[in-house]
Amino acid sequence: MRKKIVAGNWKMNKTYSEAVPLLYEIKDLLFKSKKAESVIKIIAPPSLYIHDFYETTKGLKNLFVGAQNCSYEESGAYTGEVSATMLKSVGAAYIIIGHSERRSYFKETAEELKKKTEITLKHGLTPIFCIGETMEKRQANEHFKIVEAQITDSLFHLSPADFQKIVLAYEPVWAIGTGLTATTAQAQEMHHHIRSLVEKKYGNAVSSEISILYGGSCNEKNAAELFACPDVDGGLIGGAALKAKEFIEIIHSFPA
Ligand code: PGA
Q1: Active-site residue (options: 123, 171, 191, 220)
Q2: Structural domains for the chain
Q3: Annotation marks residue 99 as catalytic
């Protein structure tokens, strides 16, 4: 059985005094929800809040704290960087890698993302590896090719044992923060394509178990139809993860 996962990417939002009450609101709603228990829930706040979030949410079933990025270096003279081991030491269990905002604004390359994935796995954390095409590439009918290259270039050197630890997140760049969601047909088509690529490379035992999340303007209104797609195993949520009720409603959106 594939894991059902909802991950909230808080991005660079909320001061500490805003973040704490929001976390408590989410925590209270999760405590009251039996339905949410079986879903893996990940909250990825700005990294300086991770330790607090970890301490505050201890004891909540299937709730994990994640980071939005990490260094590809182990440690040392890299001013401003945060390492995977540091993130682990304050309670992070997941690290989002290769988000399109990191790829475009911070010019992260396939080679760097490969190293980030390796270091994350090496230290026993789970990468949530993001892939997705721009609108320009979709209109040029190159979306399958782009996504395939992103996976091949950064992940397909991994052993099957390592690859199966990864969570993939398909996030069409044109849908992120825009209110433009992929249709269920577009999401299912791409998720199925991704699963087929994994099957071709690693076989059915790995491809049938890997969770592939959808991200890009996923909210409490469209989550149920997206999560009902056979190859969509949950969501990576940006804007709607910053509103407690909406975030919980998304967690409640898996088919029974
Ligand atoms: P969004 O962001 O839900 O605000 O579109 C998703 C993401 O960037 O992961």
Answers
A1: 171
A2: 5-251 (3.20.20.70)
A3: yes
**Catalytic pick from 99, 123, 143, 191?**
99
Q: What are phi and psi of 193, to 5 degrees?
A: -60, -45
End-to-end CA distance of the chain: 14
How large a percentage of the chain has pLDDT more than 90? 96
**pTM score, two decimals?**
0.97
Query: Helix-strand-coil percent breakdown of the chain, rounded to 5?
Result: 45, 15, 40
Phi/psi at 168 (5° precision)? -100, 145
218 C-beta closer than 6 A to ligand 1: yes
What pLDDT is recorded for position 55?
A: 98
Ligand 1 pocket residue status of 108, Cβ below 6 Å: no
Q: Of ligand 1's atoms, which has the minimum distance to the CA of residue 175?
A: 5
Q: How far apart are CA 153 and CA 142, in angstroms?
A: 16
